[in-house]
Amino acid sequence: MGLYKRLFKQTAIYGLATVLPRMFSFLLVPLYTDLLPKAEYGKVSVIFAYMIFINVFLAYGMETAFFRFFNKESDKKAVLETSMVSIFWTTISFLFIALLFRDSLAAWSGIDSQYISYTIWILALDALVIIPFSKLRAYQKPMVYAAIKIGNVLVNLILSLLFLLYIPMLIEANPYGFLSSIYVDNFQIGYIFLANIIASLLTFVALFPDYVYLNWKIDTNLWKRMMRYGMPIMVAGIAFAINEQFDKILLSKLLPANIAEDEVGVYSACYKLGLFMVLYRTAYTLGIEPFFFSHAADKNAPQTYAMVTKYFVIFGSFILLAVIVFADLFKLLMIRDSSYWVAMKVVPLIILANFFLGIYTNLSVWYKLIDKTYIGAYISIVGAIITLVLNFLLIPTMSYYGSAIATIAAYGSMMFISYYLGNKYYPIPYDLKKIGGYLSLSIFFSAVSFYGFRENYYVGISLLIAFLYFIYHNEKEMLMKILKK
């Protein structure tokens, strides 16, 4: 029980570091959708989608490689120095080259060069703190990690409110004041990125001491081994980015120009309602990755991984059902402009897709532990191919609903493939009967609630209570042990 207690504690703190910033960013969704037309919000979403791809290239699997070698090598200082120096110089190189060719990038992407410049700086600043944040996790300093992460998003939130809401109100009250002479009208997208730049810069400043006290040396042999381990992770990350973000880019390219940005806008806004599952999955992943590596040598590791996965599915199944039951209440809080609600039908698919991705994260531990990360890259490539093919086939006739179908098909396929291969290379005794039972019942209840009795909360809450009783009936003994602890 000590292992699970420690895992729960770290996951809870990392969860706080994930949930609070995302809750703050929740507030940005109604702000953006209230102030920006659907087309403008769609444009912002496409830019952020491109940023996800570049983030993967700038990290090139070094974060996961850091954790693996930090727990594997005796010289942990060399692992830290090698990974930090490597990321630093590749990031500086990217910054120089990208700024040099920003006009060409703007012409290719169809995005204003000014926004390209802002994006480049955000990407560079965020890349420079990848290893310092990983160091905090490796040395088990979740409170410091949480404080900096929360501070980053809080600054972004405050500045966004200031630039987009508060200053325009002051100017309206005093149109001839000083603020009206320096504030740029019709520059909302620019102010969104400016707030992000300042937040990223302050985060870098907070973690800058790690660079000041760094011994600027690279262990060449170690770096080569870390790169061999990390490159497949990067390929997998690119594939993940395709699964998660490329649909928005394809929507902007495959739909008629007169509706493309509007469709991206409504889809991106309703996509945000899947955030609760994303929060759960992300918080869990942050806590579980160091946990998996640090206990890889234990003889009971497979049993531990099986138990952890079962309870991930139990709690995730409840979140899936709860969010879908109350989805129409959440939309009132997050998306006040009713013109965005036309895309609500994608919400159950997006939430379930993110749950499948979380299960895949659990199932994929085996290829990281046996240093066969290239298998993870292959699985992710299969998912990316499914995403691309289905998007190209479905978007012209089904628009964003086709993108949602592609997302759930990709993550579902990856989940099943990882289980099949993991059972072959690194058998883990998963309780498939219970895992399948909780997942199937949650999906069934969710479908009944959303498609049969939508916004009928008597039925929805009754289904939630029935599901909780099902959990209690099957897990009573373990739950009582946890509560006693």
From TrEMBL:
<keyword id="KW-0472">Membrane</keyword>
<feature type="transmembrane region" description="Helical">
    <location>
        <begin position="308"/>
        <end position="327"/>
    </location>
</feature>
<feature type="transmembrane region" description="Helical">
    <location>
        <begin position="435"/>
        <end position="451"/>
    </location>
</feature>
<feature type="transmembrane region" description="Helical">
    <location>
        <begin position="339"/>
        <end position="363"/>
    </location>
</feature>
<feature type="transmembrane region" description="Helical">
    <location>
        <begin position="113"/>
        <end position="133"/>
    </location>
</feature>
<dbReference type="InterPro" id="IPR050833">
    <property type="entry name" value="Poly_Biosynth_Transport"/>
</dbReference>
<protein>
    <submittedName>
        <fullName>Polysaccharide biosynthesis protein</fullName>
    </submittedName>
</protein>
<feature type="transmembrane region" description="Helical">
    <location>
        <begin position="266"/>
        <end position="287"/>
    </location>
</feature>
<feature type="transmembrane region" description="Helical">
    <location>
        <begin position="153"/>
        <end position="171"/>
    </location>
</feature>
<feature type="transmembrane region" description="Helical">
    <location>
        <begin position="78"/>
        <end position="101"/>
    </location>
</feature>
<feature type="transmembrane region" description="Helical">
    <location>
        <begin position="12"/>
        <end position="32"/>
    </location>
</feature>
<keyword id="KW-1003">Cell membrane</keyword>
<keyword id="KW-0812">Transmembrane</keyword>
<feature type="transmembrane region" description="Helical">
    <location>
        <begin position="226"/>
        <end position="246"/>
    </location>
</feature>
<dbReference type="GO" id="GO:0005886">
    <property type="term" value="C:plasma membrane"/>
</dbReference>
<feature type="transmembrane region" description="Helical">
    <location>
        <begin position="400"/>
        <end position="423"/>
    </location>
</feature>
<dbReference type="Pfam" id="PF01943">
    <property type="entry name" value="Polysacc_synt"/>
</dbReference>
<feature type="transmembrane region" description="Helical">
    <location>
        <begin position="457"/>
        <end position="475"/>
    </location>
</feature>
<dbReference type="InterPro" id="IPR002797">
    <property type="entry name" value="Polysacc_synth"/>
</dbReference>
<keyword id="KW-1133">Transmembrane helix</keyword>
<feature type="transmembrane region" description="Helical">
    <location>
        <begin position="375"/>
        <end position="394"/>
    </location>
</feature>
<feature type="transmembrane region" description="Helical">
    <location>
        <begin position="191"/>
        <end position="214"/>
    </location>
</feature>
<feature type="transmembrane region" description="Helical">
    <location>
        <begin position="44"/>
        <end position="66"/>
    </location>
</feature>
